[in-house]
Design a protein that fits this description.
alpha/beta, 7-stranded mixed sheet, 4-stranded antiparallel sheet, 21 helices, 13 strands, globular, binds pyridoxal-5'-phosphate
Length: about 625
């Protein structure tokens, strides 16, 4: 017979191993049955022999003696020693918690190791920073950086907002209301200048269509429903038509022939992603009794995933990209699956490098392990389906792939609608049902919403529908062709004529991601791509700055169709200028500015102080000018 010590050790081993096994998720729903069976067996077959720790506990629990005496005297039915039972239970609970803590430590080590040394050092420096951040020297240094940062934001952005309406500020309500015409004049004078910036077609992403006629038409459609609220279907039944058609039209692009695909409209990509993740969390809680959900995403996944997991209390396991292709590392995904996994998250394409993850491989894994698979098509959802039909080399990415359980597609990006709408789709209505919020006992009446919002703007839905039905299949095809070609021409131009730069991640989609080429150096140095990005912004281009690895990207939109030569010419000018600087000026004498300085500084810092700068940024954006 085993002693308690041996028994505990054995139990610990079994729990550590079994909890890693995916198989455990099938056992778990029956755990209560096992527990009851165990208790019954325990009560009717005598107790376990006691070993280590038992005597100590007996001393500690001597107060139970009187309780026990009472039981023994007055309870002829319970013919066992209640004191001993409680002590056994205490031992078991202790062992259980020990097992839990140990598996946590084990999991933590297991996750840290593959993330590599760089990640580990960042992690350690962050702990160190947390420990010393209250020291005056550190505080002074951080404050100094903050002050510099605030000054930069002030000069670059806030100063431009401060001059509006002759510099007059409204920090309290104006006593008598302003003239409507005055307000409109203020706004018109602002937007006239602001529209010039993006109308030149030099902004990466941001404006996806931007033709005046299209915008005016969408505004008109919005106007018709500007006061409507789809929560009140009794007043605006026409909303039902628009909303259900937006969902069906979107689904028809990606359903892979599965009629069961369904979905709903949301306020944007982030909400679609939060809802898809919530749906999987709740679906698997019901189906497999998973109460400590985990999901797996690539480091290239959109930040909305991290936000969703923070909000929904889901443990997010990040896996790296494959080094050359920048796709999610599928092998790492398999290793990360546990009994608590509810969802694998993939992108088609990813935001940073515009890479389409290997959805078919992931789908096979997801269906084998019976976990969900989300395809983030927020960016590409209204380009890839058309590009595929046009014959571009696009791997399978939609519900036609076995294992895909949900997708998100932004109508407010390449659907060419105004900002504030997106669509989330599910393989069948069981997943969608897990997304809903239901509250039948509210004193305010039966309450249910399909999405996060309560009241919503019907105008947003109306203009989205208007955009989709007026652009039509031919329109979307035409735009997709122009956009894909533009991206490919730009990528080829860089490859052929700018050896110091490198397009990373290929161009399967409409994103051109550019980094310094480590194999073609100037005086032994790799070109600083953020400096090139800064030089481009002096020429009016607004490219996205990326990190890990350092790069910038141009997300091609309708605005860029026909502007590839302009982009290539100006990029070459910036590169030549940068090369000249690198040849002539010693690295020590070269001061970094703008984004190059910000990302240069941040890459050498642990996350803690960078977070403080990001908080500062948010404060600056909302505090008084
Ligand atoms: C834009 C984007 C999102 C998030 O969408 P928002 O509309 O900004 O909330 C998610 N994933 C990808 C790949 C995106 O490009």
């Amino acid at each position: 017979m085993l002693s308690d010590g041996q028994f505990a050790l054995l139990l610990f081993g079994v729990v550590v191993i079994v909890r890693r096994w995916h198989f455990y998720r099938y056992v778990r729903p029956y755990m209560p049955v096992f527990v009851v069976a165990g208790c019954v067996h325990y009560l009717y077959s005598g107790k376990i022999e006691h070993g280590i720790g038992y005597d100590v506990l007996c001393e500690e629990l001597s107060i139970l003696d009187s309780v026990n005496a009472w039981f023994v005297t007055f309870s002829p039915i319970i013919a066992f020693d209640i004191r001993a039972v409680i002590k056994d239970l205490v031992v078991l609970v202790g062992v259980y918690h020990l097992c839990n803590y140990c598996t946590q430590v084990y999991n933590w080590v297991r996750e840290m190791v593959p993330m590599g040394l760089h990640h580990f050092i960042k992690y350690c420096t962050d702990i160190a920073y947390e420990a010393i951040k209250e020291f005056p020297v550190v505080q002074d240094k951080v404050d100094e950086e903050k002050t510099k940062f605030i000054a930069t934001i002030d000069a670059d952005i806030k100063s431009k907002a401060r001059v509006i309406d002759g510099g007059s500020m409204n920090y309290e309500l104006p006593q008598t209301g302003m003239d409507q015409s005055h307000v409109l004049n203020i706004m018109k004078s602002c937007t006239q200048k602001e529209d010039e910036i993006w109308e030149k077609g030099k902004v990466s992403g941001g404006i996806y269509h931007g033709d005046r006629d299209h915008i005016n038409f969408l505004n008109e459609a919005f106007n018709q429903y500007s006061i409507s609220n789809p929560l009140h279907t009794d007043i605006w039944p026409s909303m039902l038509k628009y909303e259900s058609e937006i969902i069906s039209m979107t689904a028809s692009l990606v359903n892979g022939g599965h009629e069961s695909v369904c979905g709903c409209t949301t306020s944007g990509g982030t909400e679609s992603i939060i809802l898809a993740i919530k749906a999987h969390r709740d679906y698997y809680r019901r189906k497999a009794n998973i109460t400590a959900p985990e999901m797996i995403a690539c480091t290239s996944a959109h930040a909305a995933v991290d936000k969703a997991c923070e909000l929904l209390n889901i443990k997010l396991i990040k896996v790296p990209m494959r080094p050359k292709t920048y796709e999610i590392d599928v092998q790492r995904v398999v290793e990360a699956i546990t009994c608590n996994t509810v969802l694998i998250y993939s992108s088609a394409p990813s935001f940073p490098q515009g890479v389409i993850d290997p959805i078919t491989e992931l789908g096979a894994i997801a269906s084998y392990y019976e976990v969900g698979l989300h395809v983030d098509g927020c960016l590409g959802g209204f380009v890839l389906p058309f590009a595929k039909r046009l014959g571009y080399d696009i791997p399978d990415f939609d519900f036609g792939v076995k294992g895909v359980t949900s997708m998100s597609l932004d109508t407010h990006k390449y659907g060419y609608a105004l900002k504030g709408t997106s669509v989330v789709l599910y393989r069948n209505s069981n997943y969608r049902a897990a997304q809903y919020f239901l509250y039948p006992e509210w004193p305010g009446g039966f309450y249910t919403t399909a999405t996060l919002a309560g009241s919503r703007s019907g105008g947003m839905i109306a203009q989205t529908w208007a955009s989709m039905v007026t652009v039509g299949m031919d329109g979307y095809m035409e735009y997709a062709r122009g956009i894909m070609d533009t991206a490919k021409i730009i990528a080829k131009g860089i490859e052929d004529t700018m050896p110091e730069l490198l397009c990373i991640g290929g161009t399967h989609a409409m994103v051109v991601c550019i980094a310094g080429n480590p194999d073609v150096r100037v005086k032994g140095e790799v070109v600083n791509i953020h400096s090139i990005g800064d030089a481009m912004s002096k020429k009016g281009w607004s490219l996205n700055s990326l990190q890990l690895p350092a790069s910038v990207h141009l997300c091609c939109t309708v605005r860029h169709i026909g502007r590839h030569d302009l982009f290539l010419r100006e990029l070459r000018e910036c590169l030549d200028e940068q090369k000249r600087l690198m040849m002539e000026v010693d690295p020590m004498d070269r001061r970094l500015h703008g984004n190059a300085a910000v990302y240069g500084l941040a890459s050498s810092m642990p996350p803690g102080p960078v977070k403080e700068l990001l908080t500062t940024y948010n404060n600056c954006m909302m505090d008084k000018l």
